[in-house]
Write a structure and sequence with these properties.
Its EC number is 1.10.9.1. The chain is built from three helices and ten strands; from the N terminus they run αααββββββββββ. By secondary structure, it is α+β, with helices and mostly antiparallel strands. It has a domain of about 100 residues: Rieske [2Fe-2S] iron-sulphur domain (Rieske Iron-sulfur Protein). The structure holds FE2/S2 (inorganic) cluster.
């Protein structure tokens, strides 16, 4: 009801009959005429601004997506070259009649001190890959998984293993215990 009375108010009727009547050509007060000339529009500037916005958007998108993509697809690992010789520890770590396993490049190597004589062989059993140990009472390298036995230089004594243990070289330099490829 309030709308109807407002619509028929004298002020609104005056506006419709007077001022608005003269503007019935489709133009908007204070604006540009419809279908008027576009001479004043700087299309080159608009085009540049549009490209700048797209460029900034691309940079923001790239900086956001890069860590995500990097996380999902990690870069290839740098190839680490194997060393021919590594100081793995101190000679005192392998006293007489003991054995100790060291990391040598990607391999596990057991250093055995059999009555003062040092030997080094792969610590990975050739049967199914368990780690071996030195049995000082039997003076042999033993695999607890299925009972394989090897000499201190990796030769087969008994058990299910198909191959001897791979040999390595070991020496002492000062206090250093050094393993190298055989
Ligand atoms: S893994 Fe060593 S004996 Fe089977």
């Amino acid at each position: 009801m309030a709308q109807n009375s407002n619509f028929k108010s004298p002020k609104r009727l005056d506006a419709l009959e007077g001022g608005a009547a003269g503007q019935s050509s489709g133009s908007v007060a204070g604006g540009k005429a419809r279908g008027g000339s576009l001479d004043g529009v700087d299309f080159e500037r608009r085009s540049f601004l549009g490209k700048a916005v797209v460029g900034v958007g691309a940079v923001v998108a790239a900086s956001t997506l890069y860590p995500v993509v990097n996380y999902i697809i990690p870069p290839p690992e740098k190839e680490v070259k194997d060393k021919d010789e590594i100081v793995v520890g101190k000679a005192s770590e392998v006293p007489a009649d003991s054995g100790k396993i060291y990391q040598f490049n990607k391999d596990k190597v057991i250093v055995v001190n059999n009555g003062g004589t040092l030997t080094a062989v792969s610590a990975v059993c050739t049967h199914l890959g368990c780690l071996v140990q030195w049995k000082s009472d039997e003076k042999n390298i033993y695999c607890a998984c299925h009972g394989a036995r090897y000499t201190d230089n990796g030769q087969i004594i008994s058990g299910p293993q198909p191959l001897p243990l791979a040999p390595y070289s070991v020496r002492v330099d000062g206090d250093d215990l050094i393993i190298s490829k055989a």
